[in-house]
Amino acid sequence: MDGFLSLFQSYNVPAAFLVNLELTFWSAIFSAILGIILVVMRISPISSMRRVAAGYVELFKNMPLTIIMVFMVLGVFAQLKISFSDNFDTNFFWLAVVGLSLYTAAFVCESLRSGINTVPLGQAEAARAMGLNFMQSATLIIMPQALRGSVAPLGNTLIALLKNSTVAAAASVATETSSLMSEMIEFRPDVIVQIFLIFAFGYVILIIPIGVLTTYLSNKLAVRR
Amino acid sequence: MAASNESALLFDQPGPRMRKRIRVINWIAAIVFLAVLVLILVRLYNPPDGENQLSWELWKPALDGEAWSDFYLPGLWATLRATFLAVIGAVVFGLLFGIGRLIPNVVVRNVCAVVIEFCRAVPVLIMMIFFWRAFAFLDLPSPAYWSVVISLVLYNGSVVAELVRSGVGNLPNGQHEAAVALGLTRTQSLMSVEVPQAIYAMLPAAVTQLVVVLKDTALGSIIMYTDLLQESRRLGSMYFDILQTLVVAAVIYFIVCWLLSRLAEWLPSHMQKRTLAPTEAEPVAPIAIMDPSNANQIAVAREERPLGGAQRTYHVHHRGSNASIHNWRRTRYAQGFDETQPESQIQVHHRGMGHTDQDSGHSRFPYPRKGKGKRK
Question: Are A47 and B26 within 8 A, CB to CB?
């Protein structure tokens, strides 16, 4: 018990979790935007757009996140000299956000597509019978119902994103939880189990509300047919 | 194939004018994408202050025979070795805890549930770092390798456990009823009738999980496990061509994962004849605590109705680990059951047992079901 107290006194654990939450927040927004663009491309009548979106999803679904993160830092930053800020910390933070967003967008696209699959054929047929064109029927009829149907997989994607934000350690984000955990173990190897439990339960506490909220929302928003 | 089905649903068969317009937009889009590709290549060819990333000087050491024999292939072998062991361990762990979560004993069931939910919620990297350091302190041989394997076993094993549970939950009730009618106990029916079918049902989803395991071994490079990623980073730091070696590693990862994904798509049709539970791999593997899944609705929406008309009414089988359904093993819904209006539920339960659950509002009935239940 003393171990826990002294750990919390000498290390700022909540700040590290806050960094992960910030990573998750920005990546969630950017990957949602990119994912929606991808899914509209994926279901559009334009075959070249469909192919590109399918290729993107297939590429990032079958690619380890770690290699994307390493690529962002060692490839994009160190070799191509693309940077977001002169401050190293901010720069690595945004590089990690870009990596996470690119990766997660593929899963957002798949979640939305599985939501579109829940919309019955009749809805699209009715929309077409009323003379709506593709964009109209997509934005007015299909997507609102698809979004409700994809709450559950999107919630799963969000939880995975929060857990994946620890991989930002591979992109040299030194202030987030897994980096802090390594640092703490380095200096306090005597309380290694307590350190693990702090971080493990930190994630359990963060993830349970998302799971509960997802379950609640997906029941609440489900389209009754 | 799937894309064309979905698209066909969203817009009319285009007429001649629309076809022409689509063709034009198609070309414009293709040209835009190609332009983006060319821009990226130009940027690679001529970065603002760096060297030409496309030059053979940089690609040669990333591609020649020595790179393969000394770096990529040993790295790939290390990755595959860890993947293989982790998958075996995960299946054993998953079967043990998945069955443990289903057997009637309350203590065993709850202990298994807590272990599974804990392992699913903790990020794999946090587990890896912990085990790595702990094994190093305990002076065990190759701590990085074992920490990669054990972390992956714990996380993916808990996912497999949920797959076992959902596989059993998806079996038609008749399987259990028939087993009970033959005089088997609940545990016997579980072990000799339900779980064997659940294993076939979960195989495609388990192969999808294999891709996750393979991808997650790359996390091992953070804790200095010499997997494919780590080896390619070493090679890259020797010749200052890290971008090129990472691209090669990424291509190898992609090919292996893509082949496994294809296998996962091909398996369901071959497994379906061995089980009564649906064998489709989930579009999103169950990840979360209390993961609700809409796979049922997807399955219903995908169903072909040759004569058209309204969707058929089904029991919504439990898929994923939909913990929102209280007492889910005993509960069967009618499609479209509205929680706020429980009386609209088609009478699937015995009238005398029509009391509802306080916390979820779902009607429940004793298991196995007696009396006049409406079956599918």
Answer: yes
- Closest approach of A46 to chain B, Cα-based (Å): 5
- Average pLDDT of chain B to the nearest whole number: 75
Q: Angle A177-187/A192-221 helices, nearest 10 degrees?
A: 160
B248 → chain A, closest CA residue: A67
- Residues in chain B with CB shorter than 8 Å from the CB of A159 are 287-289
User: What is the predicted ipTM?
Assistant: 0.90
Find the residue in B nearest to A176 (Cα): B126
A-proximal residues of B, 255-314, CB under 8 Å: 257-258, 261, 283-284, 286-295, 297-298, 301-302, 305, 310-311
Structure confidence at residue B277 (pLDDT): 66
pLDDT tens-digit readout, A9-67: 888 889 999 999 999 999 999 999 999 999 988 888 888 899 999 999 999 999 999 99
Cβ-based neighbours of A93, under 8 Å, separated by 6 or more: A19, A22, A23, A168, A173
C-beta of residue B150 within 8 angstroms of C-beta of residue B85: no
**Contact B222/A at CB under 8 A:** yes
Distance between CA atoms of A214 and A217, rounded to whole angstroms?
Answer: 5
Q: For residue B8, what are the β-bridge partners?
A: none
Summarised one tens digit per residue, pLDDT across range B131-174 is 999 999 998 888 999 999 999 999 999 988 888 887 787 777 77
Residue at A114: amino acid letter: S
Phi, psi (5° rounding) for residue B333?
Answer: -100, 160
Strands (E), chain B: 315-316, 333-334
Overall average pLDDT of the B320-335 stretch: 37
Closest Cα in chain B to A45: B7
Residue type, position B214, single letter:
L
Domains detected in chain A: 2-221 (1.10.3720.10)
Q: Select from A58, A166, A170 the Cβ nearest to the Cβ of B123.
A: A166
- Partner-chain contact A74 B26, CB within 8 Å: no
Nearest CA of chain A to the CA of B106: how many Å? 22
Angle of the A13-43 helix axis to the A177-187 helix axis, nearest 10:
150
The pLDDT, as a whole number, for residue A225 is 61
Query: Mind giving me the DSSP string for A55-90?
Result: HHHHHHHTS-HHHHHHIIIIIIITTT---S-SSHHH
In this prediction, residue B5 has a pLDDT band, given cuts at 50, 70 and 90, of very low
Q: Do B11 and A114 touch (CB under 8 A)?
A: no
Strand partners, B315: B334
pTM: 0.80
**Which tokens sit at A167?**
């991989």
